[in-house]
Amino acid sequence: RTARLTLDPAFTVAPVPRRLFGSFVEHMGRCVYTGIYEPGHPSADADGLRGDVLELVKELGPTVVRYPGGNFVSGFEWEDSVGPKDQRPRRLDRAWRTTETNQFGLAEFSTWARAAGVEPMMAVNLGTRGLQDACNLLEYSNHASGSKFSDLRVAHGSKDPFDIKLWCLGNELDGPWQTGHKTAHEYGRLAAETGRAMRLIDPDVELVAVGSSSRSMPTFGQWEDTVLELAYDTVDYISLHAYYEEHDGDAGSFLASGRDMDLFIEAVVATADAVRARGRHSKKINLSFDEWNVWYQSRPHHMPGTEPWDPTEPDERAPRLIEDEYSVTDAVVVGTLLHSLLRHADRVHIGAQAQLVNVIGLLRSEPGGPAWKQSIAYPFERMRHLAVGEVLQVGVRSDRYETAQFGDVDIVDAAATWDEENSVLALFVANRDLSESAGVSVDLRGFASLTAVRSAEVLAAAEGQDRHTTNADQHDAVGLRPLTGVEFADGRLRVELPPLSWGVVTLH
Ligand code: AHR
């Protein structure tokens, strides 16, 4: 298998958006409870924040973290989660059919976000609630003092405002599963009016309108069109959500999931720009891809059903929901999804991988036990740290393969960035072939200052492993190792990628 790539400093897409490498913490399963928060864990601090998980989060380095849902937010009453912990009510969470103890709430998230060095991205409940409650929450969070809700925050012990700038106007309200599901018209009006009122409290907020829950939603396209018609002047971003999995052993289509992401992004950009043209608007609506990942939705899981709540169930407050264990294959797919986001950096300004811990998590943690990185954490972490400067256009001439879902697809998929200030080029590259290695030749003649390979790493099945190997038993089984045989001479880089692999090469 072979591929020829061409990069040139003159052909760029956009600066790497700081918020592209975000993640998501939802009150779901064990993401919060026994994920980031576990009083009594040997590594927990006085606030109950798990130190071992926090350290891993700092290594991953998500720039922005969406909170508190997800489907959870569409029934959430934020007032339950603030104030003295012993006075916070236990509430039935309809989304995941668990009992929410509210022992972790807005102030605790703010403390955790500061400790983790992440920007909070807050979602308001536009499922069962509306404009006034969103404004109350914003007043509680961002107003200094001298008003009912800001003074309440101060009385609760948080003198300084949380100062949250990025707000999601609801979650997946196009989905019939969502509490308070709406038509595009109902939602568009609500988003427009809620956003307008929120800006009167804090003119600096940035607002994300709910887009489609996937490209296969029956309302996809029409939803974005109607919502943006109604809310164009008020919002800054429209959201996209997408989850991928391997169906019936069709690894070829699964490995090409990035193609679906490309098509999804390009369709939403086209729709947003059509509304822009029709309305003679000057501003552009950008994209917030604020839920994406591999998620084995069709496998049997401990998913909430229709059974009644059982208060005697010991783990009802943090059940094991959708704790997918990720393999080598999943890590390669996640790498290519990140490539897609990066290649569209001119319009995708926010990304949030879903979710951070345990629930389809980058990380896993056991109650009272260890925490570790899943295979998918490695491409995320490397791209988060090495994608610096300008995103480059990548000219690709690759051998192709036939997929059931997407037709012909490139075997080699890539993205690249150029950090002119430090003269560092980063190439992120995947080989989708399951059995053959790929010889990748990269024309870098335009980068006169590059003299040598700085680093080269690869994620692939190691000796004795196969594409299904995960980190479930041996927590460091799948990860990055040195990529050998990398050559750079006369402006040409040559890389030999093992079968089914994701790699990163930097040059300086
Ligand atoms: O991330 C898990 C769930 O997936 C979220 O709660 C919801 O928004 C999406 O359907």
Task: Give structural notes.
The protein has 508 residues and is an alpha/beta fold. The chain has two domains: 64-356, Glycosidases (TIM Barrel, Alpha-Beta Barrel); 391-507, Golgi alpha-mannosidase II (Immunoglobulin-like), CATH 2.60.40. Helices cover 24% and strands 25% of the residues. It has ten helices and 26 strands. The chain has helices at 51-60, 106-116, 131-142, 148-155, 184-201, 222-231, 251-255, 257-278, 328-343, 377-386; strands at 2-6, 12-15, 22-24, 64-67, 91-93, 98-100, 119-123, 166-169, 206-209, 237-244, 286-294, 348-354, 363-365, 371-373, 390-392, 395-398, 400-403, 407-410, 412-419, 424-431, 438-443, 453-459, 481-482, 487-489, 492-497, 501-507. The chain has an eight-stranded parallel beta barrel, surrounded by five helices. A hairpin with a 3-residue loop joins β17 and β18. The longest helix has 22 residues, at 257-278. The radius of gyration is 23 Å and the shape is globular. The model has no long low-confidence stretch (mean pLDDT 96). Bound molecules: alpha-L-arabinofuranose. Alpha-L-arabinofuranose binds at residues 26, 28, 69-71, 171-172, 291, 354-355. This is non-reducing end alpha-L-arabinofuranosidase. Keywords: Carbohydrate metabolism, Glycosidase, Hydrolase. It is an enzyme of class 3 (hydrolase). It holds the Pfam family Alpha-L-AF_C. It catalyses: Hydrolysis of terminal non-reducing alpha-L-arabinofuranoside residues in alpha-L-arabinosides.
